[in-house]
Every structure is written in C-alpha cells, then in structure tokens.
C-alpha cells in the first residue's frame, strides 16, 4: 500500500468515525454539540464531502479516460488535420495492459491523422516488472495511423531536476523501452526531425529527448539547448515541437525558425486540482502554473500541455481526469 492509499483510507476511516461521534453527541442532552446543532450539521457535511472527494480521487477519476478537443488556426494547413497527443501513460504500478487496450480503443474512436506519444510511457518507480510489455496493445495503432514517441524523465529514472546525480536516480529503463517500441514498429524521435505528408500537406515533427537527461543537459554546466542541435524547420511547413517537459520551449534556439505548435506533457496538470487554488502537485518545471495544462501561448507560440493519462506517485487524481488531447489544426 503506497503513501496515497494510506492517506485516503486513513482519512476515510477517521472521517466516518468523527461523523459517528458528532452524530452521537449532537443527540445527547446537555452536550456542546447538542446545543450547537447547526455546527454539528456543518461538520458532518464537511467530513462527508471529504469522503466523497477521496472516493472520487482514488477509486473513480484515475479509471476514467476522456477526450479533450482543441483547435489551432494556421494558414499553412488547408484541410483540417487531427493530432492525438497521449502523454504519461506510465504503465507499471497503476496502469497495465488492460488500460492500454482501453486507451487504444478510445484513440480509434477519434480517428486521428497522426498520433504522438509524449514520453513517460513507463512508470519506473520502484517496480521491478518489465513494464514495457504492458504497451503491447499499441501495436494495433501501427500501420493504421502515423505514430511517433519521445522519451520522458521516467524512462531514465529521473524523478526531479534536483536529482542531478545518477546515484539519486532509479534504474534507467530507456533502452528496454526503445527495444520494445522497435518491436512494436513505433519510431522514436530523439533530438531528430521527421516530416510526413497528411492530406496533401507536409508536417514536420521535431522530438527532443527529456531535458533532464544528459543527452540534453550536461550536469557539468551544459545547456538543454543541446537537444536542438539537429533542428532544421522549413518556414513554409507546419512545424511541431514535441517535448515531454513543457520547459523544453525555454531552451529553444532564438536564431532558428520557431515551431508553429509545441506539444508537451509531464505535469499531469498537477494531478490534484483544487478550484480557485489550482494544481497541487509539483512537476518541478520553471514555467508558470498556467502552462501546466491546456493551450497557452509562450512568446506567441501555442503550447499545449496534456494532463496525461497515467499517474505518478500514487493512483490518485482530482478534477484532472486522464485525458487524450485531440488537436485539430485548421
């Protein structure tokens, strides 16, 4: 049982016990709560809402799978092109092959023109399973749609940018994943550009390695901008930058053609979102919290950050259900 499970079950048991105590004492003549019945009702309502939120966050929301549609206007595209962005599947501790099969079925219902997998396909958090085997259902998408993937920090076992020494990392399972994805026939974009024709229009995608990994960022003082060494966008083509961490845009070279769209994940939208407060989870990114979910603009460049479909740390989500993002470029 993980930390989040203990918190959820512990709170629920305590809240039920407190509701019982309050209900009992409110009926007892001469007791404080008997003389303050409105207070006893308010306390029971608050505790009850807490129990409902715990049930929603732990038992219901992580098992959902929604589709969110977003439109992007571009003069470079004549016929609408639909892109499915799926990030942070994180198979392993919380999501396994059954969920990936559900994910594949949901993707098929959207009939995308292109599928992009935005990193953290495996969880790699204290799990010694060969987690990549749970991705087998993705094979059903190969040949049916153009599909690419990039690597995220979890593939490398890097939990935080602050964990800047290999001794603080968990196992590096990136090569295991790469081998599995080669077996499935899904190509990797690793600081590389690929272009394809969709609906008689060319689209180019540049996918970068995770910016916390040494391929991008030397711990001896290098710069994540190293990831962009091979970029060669054509200004007449619709160009997509695919980065696991939205912070990737911070290191994009200023002296080259800017992307028409940036697609990212990593943040999980905070995984727990409280209205009027915002996301509670800390994905350790430099960008402002507004960039943690949905479509925003950075120096005029549209950047869409998906809340992802998996969970990190614990199987818990609140007001941030697992989501496939469908981006339609018009």
Task: List strands and helices in order, with pairings.
Elements: H1 3-26, H2 32-35, H3 37-60, E1 66-72, E2 81-86, H4 97-110, E3 114-117, E4 147-149, H5 153-156, H6 174-184, E5 192-198, E6 201-207, E7 238-242, E8 261-264, E9 273-274, E10 278-279, E11 294-298, E12 301-305, E13 323-329
Parallel strand pairs: 1-13, 2-3, 3-4, 6-7, 7-8, 8-12
Antiparallel strand pairs: 2-13, 5-6, 9-10, 11-12
Tags for this entry?
330 residues; alpha/beta; Purple Acid Phosphatase, chain A, domain 2; 2 domains; six-stranded mixed sheet; 25% helix
How would you characterize this protein structure?
Helix content is 25%, strand content 19%. It is elongated and about 80 Å long. It has helices at residues 3-26, 32-35, 37-60, 97-110, 153-156, 174-184; strands at residues 66-72, 81-86, 114-117, 147-149, 192-198, 201-207, 238-242, 261-264, 273-274, 278-279, 294-298, 301-305, 323-329. With 330 residues, it is an alpha/beta fold. The longest helix is centred in the first third of the chain and has 24 residues, at 3-26.
- Biggest sheet: strands, sense, closure? 6 strands, mixed
Provide the residue-averaged pLDDT. 90
End-to-end separation in angstroms reads 47 Å
Structural class designation: alpha/beta
Number of helices: 6
Radius of gyration: 22 Å
Please name the CATH architecture of the largest domain.
4-Layer Sandwich
Tell me the domain tally: 2
Count every beta strand, where a strand is a DSSP E run of 2 or more residues.
Answer: 13
Q: What is CATH's topology name of the largest domain?
A: Purple Acid Phosphatase, chain A, domain 2
